[in-house]
Amino acid sequence: MQMPQNSFKQALQSDSQQYGLWLGLCNALSAELCGHCGYDWLLIDAEHAPNDLNSIHTQLLAIENTPSHAVIRLVDDNPALIKQVLDLGAQSLLIPMVETAEQARALVSAVHYPPAGTRGVGTALARAARWNQVENYMQRADDEVCLLIQIESVTALENLDDILAVEGIDGVFIGPADLAGSMGHLGNSAHPEVVSAVTAAIAKIRASGKAAGTLVADPLLARKYEDAGVQFLALAVDTLLLAKGAKSALERYLSDNGDQS
């Protein structure tokens, strides 16, 4: 059995634009549905959505049957959890709240097998290795892992140059919501000071040779960030799309037929 290739990592390396969608419904059917909607990548959120290893597993399986690529955002930088999710078959990880170069280096170590890193070996139990049926899995796994780190605080911005100097980071995702809160603009990620900080960070990230990413639901702001150099861009969140669509359907019906209540 051949090693699955990481198409998302290859796209970032070739400077190809990648458009994504955030998944928070924790459901394999909705994940598979979204995988057939044309997005290059789908983010399975295990930081703020109530995902666990089992729900991540079912969504990975569902997305593998679509043209989209699964990216997993973990709850934190715990190396034990990183090991479990990699063994489950995830190839692209987004780690939130990275604030120092030391933390970034520890993450690089956590996703690589020795001697390059400290990832534990357990391929006989790992779906990623198809239970030892993938040829030369341990020799090839490191090359297919895509490590994305999330910058989302003033401290992280202050340390950004040192963080970007760390080898082994494939991309840097700017978290606008938490960054806005850290800058004193909680709930207003479109504040001019936040937009200016994000734009400046994008320039630094791209100048370092790494891919830059973010999540923006506002099309005008999304275009601004893409023009500034964002390469992997999430455009919407499944929970918000469902809520908006459900509410809109009811309002449209009541408007067209008159509220009978």
- Please state how the strands of the largest beta sheet are arranged side by side: 1-2-3-4-5-6-7-8
**How many distinct beta strands?**
8
- CATH-defined topology: TIM Barrel
> Uncertain spans, ≥5 residues at pLDDT below 50?
none
Query: What proportion of the residues form beta strands (DSSP E)?
Result: 15-25%
- What is the helix fraction of residues, given as a range? 40-55%
Query: What is the CATH architecture annotation?
Result: Alpha-Beta Barrel
Could you describe the largest sheet, including whether it forms a barrel?
A: 8 strands, parallel, barrel
What is the level 1 CATH name? Alpha Beta
Mean of the pLDDT scores? 97
Number of domains: 1
Rg over CA atoms, rounded to whole Å, is 19 Å
Give your account of this protein's structure.
The protein has 261 residues and is α/β, with parallel strands linked by helices. It contains 12 helices and 8 strands. It has one domain: TIM Barrel, CATH 3.20.20.60. The N and C termini lie far apart (62 Å).
Brief descriptors of the model:
12 helices; eight-stranded parallel barrel; alpha/beta; TIM Barrel; 261 residues
Outline of the structure:
With 261 residues, this protein is an alpha/beta fold. It has helices spanning 7-13, 28-35, 53-64, 79-88, 101-110, 137-144, 154-158, 160-164, 176-182, 192-207, 219-228, 238-257, and strands at residues 18-23, 41-45, 69-73, 92-95, 146-151, 171-174, 211-215, 232-237. It has a single domain (7-257), classed as Phosphoenolpyruvate-binding domains (TIM Barrel).
